[in-house]
Amino acid sequence: MSRLPRGRQFFANPGPTNIPDSILHAVAHVTVDFNDPAFLKVYDACIEGLKRVLKTRQHLLMYTASGHGAWEASLVNLMSPGDLVLILETGNFSESWARMAEGLGVRVQTVPADWRRGIDIAAVRAALDADTAREIKAVCVVHNETATGMSLPVGEVRAAMDAASHPALLLVDTISSLGSIDFRMDEWGVDCAVGGSQKGLMLPTGMSFTGVSDKALEAHKSAKLAKHYFNWTVMLGRRHKGFVGTVPTTLFYGLQESLRRIEEEGLEQVFARHTRLAEAVRRCVRHWSGNNGPQLFCLTPSRVSDSVTAVLMPEGHDAEAIRRTCMGMFNVSLGGGLSRLNGQVFRIGHLGDLNEPMVLGTLASVEMALQLNGVPHASGGVAAAMAFLAEAAKSA
Fold first, then answer.
1. Mean pLDDT score across all residues of the chain
2. 392 to 19, 26, 280, 326, 383: CA distances (angstroms)
3. Using an 8 Å Cβ cutoff, are 162 and 130 in contact?
4. H helix runs in the chain, sequence order
5. pLDDT < 50 positions in the chain
6. pLDDT value of residue 7
7. Domain Aminotransferase class V spans what residues (predicted)?
8. Do the Cβ atoms of 158 and 187 come closer than 8 Å?
9. Residue 347 labelled as part of a binding site
């Protein structure tokens, strides 16, 4: 039975995410000429601020597109027909990136992984060592797999590439990690970092970007895949590097406010807040797992995501029923299972603009939904989260 929703919706989907009021107000900006000197100051400040979040001093190219557009830009600007890329399996989004590559005429080799445990870095090294002809042109990594609630250690992937003395480019999807989980483009030797506006940056969907290394720009010069809107050569010749068409000025005013909020809190403090709130969610789910209840999908403690938690339902119980109850009765929006996990997991997003009451309200609604749907679980998960957060507040 559903009710008419009252109060502000608790949006606990892992993307898009909540947009703070101050960013909504910033986006509601009058139309301006994107060549106006006043706007160019905003544009330049946003580029430099976004580089600080990426932790890079290299190049940044922007697109009016979702993260998928930036995925495509990374491939068409760096690959030629028949080139080989190595995809590290993480879940739905690594599979999607692989399908895109194949659709563009790029060959794909996959390092397989158990979605609940994650990739074996030794298997990555073995695949690189076996490539004696050095056919692999790029290694493609999803830093944070939204479908499974698992992060991948990018620094360890780079170490495996260096140990194998492999010249491949390192391409990393940061879409659900950037601004929520530490990312170090230059330190980790990332050649192309793919990002989007609608997650940790707390913006509307529609802006994406690639951080690009000098090595990648050199490789771009000989890349033969067809491109036009995403052509880096064309973009680099323009004042607004990254826009072949009209610049989305209103999103830049939003990005300016997003970066102000992030830097006012402090980037490392942003990461610490995400870790704290994510751990509260995990403690709640671990408690629910008693009595053969729902459990964390990710089984590798060192790789649990600080931006999204995937919750695996007990056999015979439908995750979509929990989502329907949360939305219909409590006005709480959860993420659903993607790809092969449809109906098996629901996902709690805890990234971007959120705090302790928002997380606890979401968890309380889920615990009520478990009870209403007759799902076995150990009650008291919310109390476990509260106890952790209260203790964390004491030491803050």
1. 96
2. 26, 33, 10, 28, 14
3. no
4. 21-27, 37-54, 67-76, 92-103, 121-130, 154-163, 214-220, 232-236, 249-265, 267-288, 319-330, 356-372, 381-394
5. none
6. 86
7. 39-283
8. no
9. yes
Task: Please give the pLDDT value at position 3.
Answer: 64
CB 280 within 8 A of CB 304: no
CA distance 307 to 149: 8
Give all domains of the chain, ordered by start, each with its CATH number. 10-17+266-394 (3.90.1150.10), 31-263 (3.40.640.10)
- The reported pLDDT for the residue numbered 240 is 66
Distance of CA 267 to the CA centre of its chain: 16
Longest dimension (CA), the chain: 63
Residue 252 CA to residue 222 CA, distance in Å, equals 32
Condensed to tens digits (0 to 9), the pLDDT of residues 172-217 reads 999 999 999 999 999 999 999 999 999 999 999 999 999 999 999 9
d(CA 64, CA 77): 17
Token pair recorded at residue 242: 């990254």
